[in-house]
Amino acid sequence: MFDFAVFGSLFLTLFVIMDPPGITPIFLALTSGRPVKVQRRMAWQAVCVAFGVIAVFGICGQQILDYLHVSVPALMIAGGLLLLLIALDLLTGKTDEPKQTKDVNVALVPLGMPLLAGPGAIVSVILAVQKADAVSAQISVWCAIIAMHVVLWLTMRYSLVIIRVIKDGGVVLVTRLAGMMLSAIAVQQIINGVLQVVRGA
After folding, report:
1. If you write DSSP's letter for every residue of 73-105 in order, what string do you get?
2. Is the pLDDT of residue 110 over 80?
3. Does the predicted model carry a pTM greater than 0.70?
4. Inter-residue contact 12 to 115 (CB < 8 Å)
């Protein structure tokens, strides 16, 4: 009743897109100057918001596509292009790091959405749910989503320790590797979408 291939594929994709090591310095910057308890609470809030957004699109993704009259191959190609843009940002280090604001709960915006539950993660989850025909595949998909959010929470909760271990150079290295892997996933997704269009023509 569990498909490890489906679980591993989606978990790796979400890990590369959501980039827990890369989110660490951003989380620290957004929550700097606040008590440790507040930082931990904000980490929990950010993960809850991200999971809520991902879950809504995972459950209602098909209905949203039907309403907009968008086919799965079109979504795959668009998602691949979107992931490629994200990958290029990771590779070139051009990702924007939002500044801390006093009027907005940064755990909700921008941490929960769109940094964690961004377009790339949403598209990947919709496609994974679309492909999961068997019950075991569906269980594996949702287990991967939950596991990824647990990793995100642990990463942000213990970010002060993590940043001391891997240092800034380690974060940059992991981010570049994540960009390279994500670019390969994006290109493959575009190819799969184009092949589906050709076969359906």
Report:
1. HHHHHHHHHHHHHHHHHHHHT----PPP-SSS-
2. no
3. yes
4. no
